[in-house]
Structures are given as structure tokens and as C-alpha cells.
Amino acid sequence: EELKSVIQVRLSINGHRAGSEAGGESQGQKKIYLICDSRDVEGIVALNDFLYERGYDVLLPLLDADAGDDAQAIETHKENLAACDAALVYYGSANQAWFDYQRRGLEKVAAQGRDAGRGPLAWGVYVGGPASAHKQLFRMRDSFFVKNFGDFSSESLKPFLDSLGRTGADGGDQ
After folding, report:
1. Predicted confidence (pLDDT) per residue in 37-47, tens digit
2. Cβ–Cβ < 8 Å for 55, 31
């Protein structure tokens, strides 16, 4: 019971859903953790803007080279995973090893979260950027997945946003 209480306090401090919030911030505000490599900052601008304009809070990993060391990046990543309602891995300019590591880590967090009643409600992969053999062949069935090597298309995210229970943080279609 004590461990359960500590976890609930920790999750509520991180802004994650942990029961009801009395008079706090807007309960309807969903947080989406957009996991990307620093090489993909230009590639995620339209995606990031779209999510924000739809009313979602977008959490990002440490992207600046001088923002901190590896330990700080890992801590920020863990905090973002604990605080988010959904996570989306953007696979653009990063290499296959980076992508596989992120995907496997997210699969583990999602499985553990289901078992413990916490963690992201939804997660998925957005494949963009320059095409590669791995990107061309990559597919997945157990989560949201989209491949788009052209300009960003907001329509491609509709299934992912629908999995959060609505198409936008404000509940609207546009």
C-alpha cells in the first residue's frame, strides 16, 4: 500500500493521471511525447506544430547538444514517459539502431504500464525523412504505424489521435 501511494504521488507530481485532480490544471489536456533524434528537429516541426495546434502538450527529449549529458537525457526521457498520455517515435534521419532501441523500450514501457495500470495510453511510430531499406521494409501490427516520406499529412495521424479517445484535445475534428 505504501509503494502504491508513493507511485501515485510521483505520477501526480509528474503531471500524469493518478486519480482525480481537485481544482488543478485542465484534466482534458493530453500530453504526447514526441520521441526523436536531434538530427530530426527539422523533420518534426510540422508534426509538433500540428499536435500543439490541436491542443496537445508536446513533450520532447533533450535535443540541444549543450542541454545536458547522457544521464540527464535518460532522466528526461524517463520523466516524459511517466508524464505522457501517448508516445510517438519519429524515425527520420536517425539510424536503425537508434530506432530499434527506442521502439523496443517503448514496447516494454507500454507492456509494463498495461500490467500496472499506468504508462502511455497509446504509442506508435511515424516513419519519415529519407527512405532507407529498413524503413521501406519495416511494418508493425501491435501499435499505430505510418510511413510518410513526403510532406507531413495531418490525416495520417487520425488513427493515433483517435486511439487517445478523440481526434483533438478539444474533442473537435479540426
Report:
1. 999 999 999 99
2. no
